[in-house]
Structure formats: C-alpha cells, structure tokens
C-alpha cells in the first residue's frame, strides 16, 4: 500500500489511503468521477449487456485468433466448469455439506451445531423484511424515461449514525445508510434523513389530550447544517432558517482554529464537494440533534442499481431499535410521557394511549389530578 | 429503562459541555424530551452479532484461498483447465453453502470477493494473480446472493489491471484474457474509489490487522535495503574511509575521528538477520496459534491428532513460504540461505500451541465485558408479588412468541447456555 501511495504516477484525483487503511485523502468528488470515466471504456460502465455474438466477435479481434479457437476457449472457460456436483445430483445450498474440507465450512458447521443447542428465544420477524431492502430496488427502471439516472453517474453511500452515542454504543454505531447520486443537492439528502427529533411535538398536553398537534418540530425549526472538510453547509431555503453554525464558528475563532467557511446547502451538489472517504463528518439539525456521518463508499452506477432518479436518496440499511413499551400493559408502544405524576411508578413514565387515559382521566375525560404530560415519539417508529 | 437520575445526569452533563446558545429551539422541555428519547435508544443485539460473526470468517477464508492458490501454484501453470479441475476437486463452490439468511449470504459473498481481490493485484507474482483472477471468476459465479455481489475495483488499481491484461495478451495467455473480458462483460465489477467501504471503525480495524498483515504482506523493506551487494559496497567505502583517515592522521590517531563504528558492516548484517528471524518466528507463531484454535478437534487430542496438526502447520508454512518467495522473488539472496534454519525453528516452536486456546488466539483482543442487566420494573413487581404469595411461580417467566406455536405438553429441553468459542 505504501508503495502505491508514494509514487506520483497516479493522478491527482485518484483516491488513496491517508492513514492505516482507515480513511482516504481528500478528494474532489466530481474530478474523481471524471478520472474514472476518462480511463474506462464506455461499454464497461454502460447499462447495456452485450449479446454473446458481439462479445465473441470483439474478443476475436482483440486476441487475434480465429473464432473456432475462441469457441473452444468458451467451452473450457464456461461457468459449468466450476460445478463440483453433477447436474443430476443437485445439492441443497442451504445446508453445510457433511465433512467439509474448507476451513470456512468447518467454522460454519461448528457454529451451526452450537446454535442448535440454544433455545430459540427470538423470532426474527424483522429479518424477513430487512432482506427485501437490498433487493427491492434492484435494476428498477422508472416509468418515466426522463428520470433515468444517466450512465456513468456516481453513487455515494453515507452512514448516518443515530444521535448521542453513549459508552455502550461504541461498538455498534447504529446507523442508517443512504445512497445518493453525485448530481443531487445536499438538501435532497437532508430531507431524506429521518430522525425522531424531527417528529417531536412541542407542548404540554395534560389538559387537552385529544387536541392533536398540528405541527411537529420539523415544521417549526428548519435550520440545519452539514459539516464537511472545514465548510459548514447551511440550509437556507426558508426565511425562518438561521445559520446555526455561527456559534461554533465564533467559538472556534477565539480558540486559534483555522477559519471555517460557510456555504449554502441548496447550492451544492455532491460533485462540488471535497471530502475524505471513511472520515467522520457531521450533520446537525433541530438545534442540537447531532449525527456523525461517514461517506463510506463512492462508485460508478451499476446496471443492478436502482435507475429511477426520483427514488434517490435510497435508504439501503437501517439499524432497528427496541421500542419502549407502556409501563402498565407492557404490550403497546408508548405514546405519552408524564412527569410529576404521583400515580406513576417512576418519573418520567411512559404510557400507551389507552392506559394513559384510563389512569389519568375519568369517563368524561376530566383530568383526575395534577401532572404534566408530553407526547412521546418512540425511536422505533422507523423500524 | 434508564433510571431518571441517569437521564438527569446526562442532561446536566450535556447542558454543561454543550454550547447551549446554539439551541435554535430554546425550549427546555423539548430539549429534555428529546434527550430522553435519544438516551433510551436500544438496538437489537442480533444485528450487531451478525457483522461480528462474519468478521470471524476472514481468517478461514484466507486459509482456504491460500490452499487453493498454493495448489494452483505448484502446477506452475496458468491454464484455466488446471485451475478449474482443482476448484472442482476442492469443491470450492460449496464455500457459500449453509447460510440460510439472504442478508448474511450477501455479506459473506462480499467478504469472500474482497478477500480474493487482493490476490489479483500486485505485489503478487503473475501466476498468483492469474490464480486470483480465476478465483474471482469462480466465486462470482458460485455465490448464492441476490443480487450477485460485485467485485470491487478501486481507481488506483485499474492501471495494474490494464497492465496485467497487456502482459497476458503479449504472452498469449488467451484464457486469462477471456476470463477477464467475460467478467467485465457480465458487469461483475463495481468501479469504486477505495478497495473496501470505509466506515471509520478504528477499534475493529486494530483487532484484525495483525493477522492480515502477517499473511499477506510481511514487511521486507529492511531486507530490500540491506542486500549483499549493498553490504559489499558499504564495506568497500568503509575500507576506503579508514585508509583516508589513516593517511590524514598517521602520526597521532585521534579519537575524535572515530565517527563510525569500526565493525559497521557485520553489525548491520547481524541486525537485519535477527530482524528477519524474528519476523519469521513471529508470523509463523501467529499463524500456528490461529490454526490450532480454528481446528475442529477438541482440546483432548490424541498424540496422532497432535502429529497431524503439526504436519498441517508445517505444510501451511511451506505453502506460505512458497507464495511469499514467488511474490518477493527479487528480494534477497540472504533469505535463501536461512530458509532451512527457519524451518527448523518453526517445527520446534509449533510442537505445542503457543497460546492458551481459551484466549481466542487473537493478540490484543479486548475481553468482552458482560453487559450488566437490570430486571425490568414488571419483573421486579411480579417477583415481589410472588414472594408475598400473590401469584404462582410460572407468572415469573414470560411466554416467548415461538411457544405460541408449540403444544403445552411439549417440553423443550433447556440447554445450558455456553458462549461460542471462535
Ligand atoms: Zn437527528
Ligand atoms: Zn398500556
């Protein structure tokens, strides 16, 4: 690795490791894409898969051998040559073969034998669905031909970590993974990031539990910023938006930091950015809901990717979180949180809608005693 | 449920260190609420386990790939026929078998392809790289994933691939060029920025690194630098320098002129020798301990078992040595003279497992702390009720979801839970 890093023959926009296989050097994303497109023959990144005849003819030209020889080659190198089991004895690919020689299979078998000794105590309902997330958009074509993603577009994958990492999250880094196109605006990614903070409802509702709140935090507080490589990208699309990065920049000025720049989120596409791959950056919204985000991967679009532009940013992975159940029935997901509540076993305390009303109100809906109640939005709502 | 005190504590902590002035919302209750929500975030442990489990397959994957490539290398051929017969022989396609969950299938395919890609790129010799290409072809078409996982090719490696194609073409290895073209034609590649996705997992990286480095690329810089020619050259210069000094101060040899040790050359030679010996022992020691823990046999092994294990170790060492020797063929002559001695050292050291297998064999691995577990409020209440005789004992255990589909009488044997040893 060190050798290829050191030589200067590679172009300026060829990403290389900066440290310990951990993250790359800063690259300009648009130029990186151009470097690939310059060096790669267009048919290698196009969506079209060539028919076999054309393929053979082209190859015969490259190799300068007669087509008969090439057909012979084709037979030798066919995919069938890899099959270790004859066609009339198909094997079940879901079972580890008995007495395997390969180290991987030995380990897998050992693991499976171990698993059989365990009592099942979880039914993975979610697993069945989470598989679909990966395959549902595979090679999807839009109905409207104008929204096809052009060939040679790049896809960026961002890991957006859930807010506030305590000690116990150090090894997990619960996150959602978003795929965005290089030509998309930063604001498109911002709008696609879903976070419970955006859904919070402001206010105390113990006196009127039936008044359904009209606005959630997302409607009230629209300011947000991304921080990439010394630049704060502020969302300034609405008149209510404020530059919430200002405090940080002011603070940094007094601490001898290099000067931070600002830019407008809605003016920038991902092609315009300079970033490191695998390096932690920052997304902040709702004033103080802070998400670490990491650009994990950049690559050219592939025929198997979703080709409908309107479906991007695409959510491709999401950690599920446990839902908080009502402390009375332990069955339903909580909707209310109360404080200064003398009938509650703890403070604060969570209730589902039904138990909340039964405990705190009489049949006519009158409040029975004094307490404060707030709307609770469970982080598990996105599961 | 996090106790209220812990919430309040983190609240006060947060308000201390946070620049609360950039709180756009300015509503204390909302702030408080959100904090509660975030702090109560718990992730399903199952999702964590899967990624950690897959990581454990990296080592055996390397073992398998090196076995296959080593066999291929011993044929000293680059013909695809030879490779494919070996592939069938080893039933290598079965490596993907036995995974039920699609997500896990995909993840395993990705790891397998990523691991194999390394052998397709420099610094390996042409023959190993051809083997690497064939392995990629084999793995790509044998995987049971949906969609088929792609081979990642980084921009910086593309030049190497092009040069490789040129080499194959000029020496008329048609099957090599054909296979590569076919992979490209079936769109088996992702053209990426970096060889693997990077997620800034600092601590995990550190745990994996020692082994991978040991197998794939032992550092050979000192040996490259200090060759026999270089030593001769230095000896010459040193001799010359001494003569010059002698001519300058023939009458009264001054101590202040002794800037260089007089035994410079032997010293240099000895330190490189000892570094190299240390390196050999170190890498092979590491591999041996991994090998001994990943073997299937229980620790109460008979002597024949032990013997077999020993043989396997030295066979593997030979194999690795031959792969290394090929890829670093140009390196040093000094190494050759020492190779037999190194083998002796290895067999003596490998007779017994170097490390306690219970330790997991990974140097520097942090022992996992058991999570502290608080009983829920519901459980505590039930417990109290049970103790005062309010309810029968069976109320204490909750009914698991899967039991709903089982008959009441059907008693499941509750096995003693032991931790899986990797
Ligand atoms: Zn948030
Ligand atoms: Zn309830």
Automatic annotation (TrEMBL), chain A:
Keywords associated with the record: DNA-binding, Nucleus, Transcription, Transcription regulation
Keyword flag Chaperone: no
Family according to the record: Belongs to the SNAPC3/SRD2 family.
PANTHER family named among the record's database cross-references: SNRNA-ACTIVATING PROTEIN COMPLEX SUBUNIT 3
Subcellular localization(s) per the UniProt record: Nucleus
Function in brief: Part of the SNAPc complex required for the transcription of both RNA polymerase II and III small-nuclear RNA genes. Binds to the proximal sequence element (PSE), a non-TATA-box basal promoter element common to these 2 types of genes. Recruits TBP and BRF2 to the U6 snRNA TATA box.
GO BP, sorted A to Z: snRNA transcription by RNA polymerase II; snRNA transcription by RNA polymerase III
Oligomeric form and interacting partners: Part of the SNAPc complex composed of 5 subunits: SNAPC1, SNAPC2, SNAPC3, SNAPC4 and SNAPC5. SNAPC3 interacts with SNAPC1.
InterPro entries cross-referenced by the UniProt entry: snRNA-activating_su3
Presence of the UniProt keyword Nucleus in the record: yes
GO CC terms, sorted: nucleus; snRNA-activating protein complex
Name of protein: snRNA-activating protein complex subunit 3
MF-aspect GO terms: bent DNA binding; core promoter sequence-specific DNA binding; RNA polymerase II cis-regulatory region sequence-specific DNA binding; RNA polymerase III type 3 promoter sequence-specific DNA binding
One Pfam family matching this protein: SNAPC3
UniProtKB/TrEMBL annotation, chain B:
Lineage: superkingdom: Eukaryota
GO BP terms, alphabetized: snRNA transcription by RNA polymerase II; snRNA transcription by RNA polymerase III
Region (Disordered): 286-315, 348-367
Cellular component terms per the entry's GO annotation: snRNA-activating protein complex
Recorded GO MF terms: sequence-specific DNA binding
Spans traversing the lipid bilayer: none
Low complexity composition bias: residue spans: 292-311
Xref: InterPro entries: SNAPC1
PANTHER family assigned: SMALL NUCLEAR RNA ACTIVATING COMPLEX, POLYPEPTIDE 1, SNRNA-ACTIVATING PROTEIN COMPLEX SUBUNIT 1
Protein name: snRNA-activating protein complex subunit 1b isoform X1
Organism this protein belongs to: Clupea harengus (Atlantic herring)
